[in-house]
């Protein structure tokens, strides 16, 4: 009988204990506002490999939004991109962009295939590329100068309208032989040198040494003497060189030589010295980031473009790079405008800066 009573007491104690535990758990989950499902699901989520908390980081290997190019900013988001193979050509100034930017466009948008075309005759350049565009040899052109009145007139005579789309900022740099000691040149002094009015470096604060100016042919764009002279005529002592490479070689062996071209081509060179220029005497702005790297320190170190002065306009000889588009409503126009839109996207502008130019946006 005693054993039976003990068993009954144990059963009653178990029931009472279970009721107390159950009631306490009910009160905790219902009255305290706690969520049982949340409590049970605080472990790792198998679909993401991370906790479900709002402050949790993305899984390893997945970039955070802050560390990647947001959707709508890259090449993949550019709209109205035609499919096909499109030929293009023009300015030699664009060579670094073609080298760095174009392969990324190709890999991101394989439907938009690009092919650079050299001219059949003559040296490549802005003018040559625009001529090739007018003759239907390429779909769009790359230019380091604006369209000329003559080019617009030629286009109109052929029933064509051309559009120039600025995509980057570059500058024209003046370079001299490394042995020449001169603090800088004003725009007017440069014009006087190339028009033949100034023929000795002593006339502009340098040594008693004859000046030997070099220039590229009119088809070159950035190296065209009209960029500097405007309505002035070049002097009889100006020597033509076929390419920037030829100009650099001439300058390296000519103590009194002077040459000008796009800053991205001249500033990093080891065999010549870029010259600060200004609008007024004594207000010279270098096309390079100071301090100047001497030829003896090159190529271990190279001079770099003074991007801030180019973008602010403080450096006096800056200009835009243009995509020249044929406004015909056809595939050529679509290709040219798409290419310009690639370059004007944040991804394109970042790659342009990587290529040594200054972003326009």
From TrEMBL:
The lineage of its organism: Bacteria, Bacillati, Cyanobacteriota, Cyanophyceae, Leptolyngbyales. Keywords: Membrane, Signal, Transmembrane, Transmembrane helix. It comes from the Bacteria. Residues 39-72 are annotated as: Disordered. CDD domains: PBP2_phosphate. PANTHER family: PERIPLASMIC PHOSPHATE BINDING COMPONENT OF PHOSPHATE ABC TRANSPORTER, PHOSPHATE-BINDING PROTEIN PSTS. Residues 39-69 have a biased composition (Polar residues). This is Phosphate ABC transporter substrate-binding protein. Residues 86-346 form the PBP domain. The chain crosses the membrane at residues 7-28. InterPro entries: PBP_domain, Phosphate_ABC_transporter.
